[in-house]
Specification:
With about 100 residues, this protein is mainly alpha-helical. It is built from five helices and two strands. It has a single domain, classed as Arc Repressor Mutant, subunit A, CATH 1.10.10.10. Helices cover about 60% and strands about 10% of the residues. It has a two-stranded antiparallel ribbon with strand order 1-2. A hairpin with a 2-residue loop joins strand 1 and strand 2. The longest helix is centred in the C-terminal third of the chain and has 24 residues.
């Protein structure tokens, strides 16, 4: 439940997505994720505490646990891609449009 709670927090999955292929500096990660510095700092702290993200001279990067998590999420990404094509997501009204 801890992992699902963290992944449900604003920006957490975006941070993981941006780090999936390479290490990034804080500024590069902030620009790529379009998060404000305070929110990004908070997510990175949480992800580091759970050993999903780490920091080195090269910047922030996924740990072995983080890479395994991203691999576990691949089937969800595959499903989302198929679903988006089938429902033409770009033409759907926003979920909160009432």
């Amino acid at each position: 439940m801890v992992a699902l709670d963290l992944l449900g927090r604003r920006g957490a999955l975006r941070v993981l997505w941006e780090l999936r292929g390479r290490a990034m500096t804080f500024r590069a990660l902030q620009a790529a994720s379009e998060m404000n510095p305070a929110s990004l700092n908070k997510r990175l702290k949480e992800l580091r505490e759970l050993d999903i993200v780490s920091h080195s001279d090269a910047g922030y990067h996924l740990t072995a646990h983080g890479r395994a998590l991203m691999s576990a999420l691949n089937p969800l990404q595959d499903w989302a891609t198929r679903w988006a094509r089938s429902v033409d997501v770009g033409r759907q009204p926003p979920l909160n449009s009432g």
